Amino acid sequence: MVYDPENIFAKILRGELPCDKVFEDDTVLAFRDIRPMTPVHVLVIPKGPYVSLDDFSANASDAEIVGFYRAVGNIARDLGVLKDGCRFLANTGEDARQEVPHFHMHIFAGRDLGSMIKRV
Ligand code: AMP
Question: Tens-of-pLDDT digits for all 120 residues of the chain?
Fold first, then answer.
């Protein structure tokens, strides 16, 4: 899949749309989800143009990948959600209903999150 530079997160990265910023460094931005599903709901995104975890893991540099996952852990730690627990989730592709085609990691926390996925 080709990266769409007009996706919402690309616009946030360019400063064309606002966000409720939680963290930023050279390669990573984190902000609160506009429609939070849990009391704490933060999205962590790389600044590079990667469509999904598939694209990111295949094409990002080692420095970007290390920086991203270190930031995810540090942000969760700083949010104070690791003591009671939280959920990291990266929807990838159609079956997962990924809405925004810029790789992002959700951090859900602040209540009992229930079982991982609905059994059918
Ligand atoms: P996903 O379904 O994994 O692609 O999740 C995309 C997430 O982006 C959803 O939880 C949306 O609520 C969130 N979202 C969409 N637009 C914005 C925005 N402008 N600022 C913050 N979060 C957003």
Answer: 899 999 999 999 999 999 999 999 999 999 999 999 999 999 999 999 999 999 999 999 999 999 999 999 999 999 999 999 999 999 999 999 999 999 999 999 999 999 988 888
Distance of CA 68 to the CA centre of its chain: 10
Give the Å distance between the CA of 35 and the centre of ligand 1.
7
pTM > 0.70: yes or no: yes
What's the token pair of residue 75? 């942000």
Whole-angstrom distance, CA of residue 65 vs CA of residue 1:
20
Residues tagged active-site: 104
| CATH number of residue 102's parent domain | 3.30.428.10
Q: Which helix (H) or strand (E) holds 68?
A: helix 62-79
Most ligand 1 atoms within 8 A of CB, residue of 99, 102, 103 to mutate:
99
Query: How many distinct structural domains can be found in the chain?
Result: 1
